[in-house]
Amino acid sequence: MRGRERAMARVRVAIGGINHETNTFNTVRTGLDAFRVTRGSGLLADEAARSLLADGVDVVPTIYAEALPSGPVGK
Fold first, then answer.
1. What is the C-alpha separation between 15 and 61, in angstroms, rounded?
2. Which of 3, 30, 35, 60 has its CB 3.0 to 4.6 Å from that of 65, i.e. a possible disulfide?
């Protein structure tokens, strides 16, 4: 990109994540069914995403999964 093109380029940020607190002393494995999954536009309700959108950033939502603290995640 050259000067003017670079100045006009918008920032794009992909958002997503995985959250799980693993307790290794717990012998019960955490299955995939224990995770609550949010995809796509559902991630745009997050305060951080709304802040990015308000600043003119192109936000690309991916996937976010979280489970309650429990044993190691099974394969």
1. 5
2. 35
